Amino acid sequence: MPQLTPPEMNQAGNNVPTRNVPSHSVPSHSVPSHSLPTRNVPSHNVIAIDGPAGSGKSTVARAVAAKLGMPYLDTGAMYRAVAFTAMRRGVDPDDAEVVARLAADMQLEVDERVLVDGVDATIEIRSPEVTRAVSVVAINPAVRKELVRRQREWADAKGSGVIEGRDIGTVVFPDAPVKVFMTASDEERAQRRTQEMLDMHYDEVAADIARRDHIDSTRPYAPLAVAPDAVLVDTTSSTVEEVVELVLQLATKAGLA
Ligand code: CDP
Predict the structure, then answer these.
(1) Is 213 left (phi over 0), alpha (psi -120 to 50) or beta?
(2) Domain limits of the chain?
């Protein structure tokens, strides 16, 4: 069974904002919200699934969405699409101003396929080159602001959804009724990702994941972090079915299933 750490409760049953995070997972951060848009839309029926690369969040999020008949949004694909566009246009991913403009101007559809300015980039956004550039693009507060706006717009239009990423429970939908933070040991995550990447070796994949974990969890704006009221799920030794079942139970408890 997945190792589960529910949010701590005080005597009144309220969540207490302190977390015990296993050493291999990403530490909890306070999230500075000053430069990000504040919520001015009503709470959505969102199941927020956050976690680092290889924690299993995409597989689980897709399966939960299918079981519940809810729409699914992969926000990582949106950051990847911005990195892809920068590379395609020959823009340095470090050029914050130009990349921010690209993010604001680009046409983006994320569904089963990822369409960037009308071009199907579903495969290309997963390339090692885009993967190398994406975390730098994701540091950019203006890019984040724009993508968060689009993510909230998506949820407004759909009314509900299973949304996965790094900051969904902390920043994008802090009022989500179900928040799960998935993690797994570094070795297990690298192994899983190596199986998906046909042309990369374990060492290369492990180094890439470690580098991205570091950039993602130490950036000042909306870092990868465990929301105080998220359920922390260690998937190192569990099957996809077990984790899906767990999230479905949480959704049922929250009245979403
Ligand atoms: O699939 P994988 O876990 O490799 O990554 P992803 O979910 O496709 O996300 C790619 C990158 O986008 C992450 O490493 C983050 O830098 C960034 N990201 C983010 O900053 N915030 C999100 N909500 C989602 C992704």
Answers:
(1) alpha
(2) 3-253
